[in-house]
């Protein structure tokens, strides 16, 4: 008979393995950033960071470019998250609660937009944004990112609202609440876990977006970090340690954001799983 | 209590939304002219190079100091998507005022009418332009560009690892093979579709170095026996595992700078870039040891965007760049490359870099990496050829079939 602690040990090992796979790329970036030139392509890879090379992080920040890129990324990602959720809530609510002609078609069209590759939309959107003077602005990127992420946000929120008992809304209406009040004061607090999940999706989409950012932004000081890092890749040479240092700093805020909303996301994933 | 929390969250949400709206309306682009000063942007992929980029930026600053009416700043466009990004911007009537293009994108932009003709903006008769590269700047009597950089391809080798450079392909192959052990590789070249433009530049030397050509000027000759021979030589090196497979140019060039790669075929611009990464590397240069003395050349014209509202001001910058003193400075920054005009190298420069003459001697036998007779279609043909050659490298199809397929697809494309 197997001792009871063996199962637990195996589970812990499995979790550690999965955790290692997830965290290793981040660790590898950090170690590479702190590897000196002679060891960069050595036969045996360095597995422990050489903290005497920490100056690469300070140099990357000292120029000021990296902090500007990170700030721009943060503005774009936060703006996209707010806008897409702000528009996704009423859209998801309408799809969930109202009956209107073409409702199924709207849902299908929303899904269809997720099948369009960004590269296909660059040229037409560039012309459109030029017409409305939205090029070379963070606001333009917030708009375009929101447009791409809004359908998935709306569909997730529709699913969450579908799961709410209609009786709650009816009770509120009996007490004189208007539809907007019902939405904001009854439904929104109840779908907070799903909101957190969609916030993660929207934030990460905008944080990592490259194609629109590289095409729509001309001023170096307006570029987000996704484009800024690519600027280090030269035609004939690339400062690998600097790229890794900036890439590591680029990853960190996104990880912090995820950790911040993680508990809501987990709650969102399990919501309704034990509905009686 | 709960009501208060909800109200607070609503106020917070409203505030954030207001901020978003403010961002949407308040982050528009600046104009091109401010206080009587015309502000221009100059996009060049070289501005991102560790060795040459900072020097080129200083060179731009010298222009800005030289006069008060026009100011030029670098537009940061990442190298990996440079051509695609700039052409998209120009195609929609925007983009930088001045652009340093590579030839395939130059030809495509020129054919699409995206480049401003320079005939009325710059009187080139005032300058002693290098005839061989300059001939490619004029289309049907219209001048579309001025050479910013002309750079011939040669063989770079680590002089510590290779005391005597190979003089024929067999020696080249054997040297690469004997050097490959442990963490050191004998050779490096680009071999993935992700680096399409780079693979094209690399295979160009094998095709022309073995007597082949992409066209005869009238029709495509992608699957000709000479091309097959040259590309088979390329594939043999790949199959012999003498290159760091999967490594991109950024990685293997850094490896060369650190003494982990023995040889590389590259252009003159690589001299400054390599020294920028490792000033102590003992490297040398020799002609590419292939049967035919014909190799690629990077011709990089500077052009004015047809959509630029300040073409005259942009021409002011080009005229400044063409002045003899500024040409000398630019040539020194660019390393072993040539510039637009006949510019002598200083004795100090030749002493510091004796192999500069190797590059200069190759000018007559170097060709721009375009498909002659199908210049504007070069980017599309390049895509087809690279896709098929990479498929052959990866073993999904044999090389002859891959070239036959590329010939058929490209012929359909050009009609």
UniProtKB/TrEMBL annotation, chain A:
This is Multiple sugar transport system permease protein. GO terms for biological process: transmembrane transport. The chain crosses the membrane at residues 12-30, 74-93, 105-129, 141-161, 182-204, 240-261. The keyword Repeat does not apply. Signal peptide: none annotated. One of its GO terms (cellular component) is plasma membrane. It comes from Nonomuraea jiangxiensis. Keywords: Cell membrane, Membrane, Sugar transport, Transmembrane, Transmembrane helix, Transport. It is found in: Cell membrane. Belongs to the binding-protein-dependent transport system permease family. The keyword Membrane applies. Residues 70-261 form the ABC transmembrane type-1 domain. It is a multi-pass membrane protein.
Automatic annotation (TrEMBL), chain B:
It comes from Nonomuraea jiangxiensis. This is Multiple sugar transport system substrate-binding protein. CDD domains: PBP2_TMBP_like. Gene3D superfamilies: Periplasmic binding protein-like II (3.40.190.10). Keywords: Signal, Sugar transport, Transport. Residues 1-20 form the signal peptide.
């Amino acid at each position: 008979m197997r001792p009871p602690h063996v199962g637990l040990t195996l589970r812990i090992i499995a979790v550690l393995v999965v955790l290692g796979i997830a965290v290793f790329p981040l660790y590898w970036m950090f170690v590479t950033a702190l590897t000196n030139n002679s060891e960069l392509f050595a036969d045996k890879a360095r597995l422990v960071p050489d903290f005497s090379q920490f100056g690469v992080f300070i140099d990357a920040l000292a120029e000021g470019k990296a902090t500007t890129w990170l700030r721009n990324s943060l503005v774009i990602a936060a703006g996209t998250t707010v806008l897409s959720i702000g528009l996704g809530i009423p859209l998801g609510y309408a799809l969930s609660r109202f009956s209107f002609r073409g409702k199924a078609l709207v849902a299908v069209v929303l899904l269809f937009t997720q099948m369009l590759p960004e590269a296909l939309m660059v040229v037409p959107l560039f012309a459109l944004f030029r017409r409305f003077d939205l090029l070379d602005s963070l606001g333009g990127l917030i708009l375009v990112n929101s447009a791409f992420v809004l359908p998935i946000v709306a569909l997730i929120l529709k699913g969450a609202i579908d799961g709410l008992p209609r009786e709650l809304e009816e009770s509120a209406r009996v007490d004189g609440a208007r539809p907007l009040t019902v939405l904001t004061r009854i439904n929104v607090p109840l779908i907070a876990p799903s909101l957190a999940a969609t916030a993660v999706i929207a934030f990460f989409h905008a944080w990592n977006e490259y194609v629109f950012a590289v095409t729509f932004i001309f001023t170096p000081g307006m570029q987000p970090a996704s484009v800024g890092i690519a600027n280090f890749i030269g035609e004939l040479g690339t400062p690998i340690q600097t790229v890794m240092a900036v890439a590591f700093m680029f990853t960190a805020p996104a990880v912090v954001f995820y950790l911040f909303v993680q508990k809501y996301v987990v709650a969102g994933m399990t919501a309704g799983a034990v509905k009686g | 209590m709960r009501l208060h929390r909800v109200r607070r969250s609503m106020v917070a949400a409203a505030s954030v939304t207001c901020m978003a709206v403010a961002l949407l309306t308040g982050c528009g682009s600046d104009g091109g002219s401010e206080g009587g000063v015309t502000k221009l942007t100059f996009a060049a992929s070289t501005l991102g190079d560790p060795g040459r980029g900072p020097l080129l930026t200083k060179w731009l600053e010298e222009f800005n100091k030289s006069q008060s009416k026009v100011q030029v700043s670098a537009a940061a466009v990442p190298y990996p998507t440079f051509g695609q990004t700039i052409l998209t911007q120009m195609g929609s009537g925007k983009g930088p005022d001045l652009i340093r293009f590579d030839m395939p994108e130059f030809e495509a932009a020129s054919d699409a009418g995206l480049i401003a003709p320079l005939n009325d903006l710059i009187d080139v008769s005032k300058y002693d332009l290098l005839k061989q590269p300059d001939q490619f700047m004029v289309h049907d009597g219209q001048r579309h560009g001025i050479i910013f950089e002309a750079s011939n391809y040669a063989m770079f080798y680590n002089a510590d690892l290779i005391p005597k450079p190979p003089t024929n392909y067999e020696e080249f192959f054997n040297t690469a093979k004997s050097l490959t052990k442990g963490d050191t590789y004998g050779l490096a070249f680009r071999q993935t579709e992700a680096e399409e433009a780079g693979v094209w530049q690399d295979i160009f030397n094998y095709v022309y170095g073995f007597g082949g050509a992409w066209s005869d000027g009238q029709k495509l000759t992608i699957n000709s026996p000479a091309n097959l021979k040259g590309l088979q030589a390329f594939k043999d090196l790949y199959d012999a595992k003498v290159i760091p497979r999967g490594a991109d140019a950024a990685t293997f060039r850094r490896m060369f700078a650190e003494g982990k790669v023995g040889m590389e075929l590259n252009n003159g611009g690589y001299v400054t870039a390599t020294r920028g990464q490792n000033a102590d590397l003992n490297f040398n240069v020799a002609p590419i040891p292939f049967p035919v003395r014909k190799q690629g050349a990077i011709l990089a014209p500077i052009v004015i965007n047809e959509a630029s509202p300040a073409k005259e001001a942009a021409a002011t910058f080009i005229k400044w760049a063409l002045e003899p003193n500024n040409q000398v400075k630019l040539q020194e920054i660019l390393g072993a490359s040539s510039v637009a005009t006949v510019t002598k190298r200083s004795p100090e420069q030749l002493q510091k870099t004796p192999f500069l003459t190797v590059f200069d001697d190759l000018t007559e036998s170097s060709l721009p990496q375009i498909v002659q007779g199908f210049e504007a279609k070069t980017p599309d043909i390049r895509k087809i050829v690279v896709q098929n050659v990479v498929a052959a490298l990866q073993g999904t199809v044999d090389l002859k079939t891959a070239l036959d397929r590329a010939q058929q697809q490209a012929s359909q494309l050009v009609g």
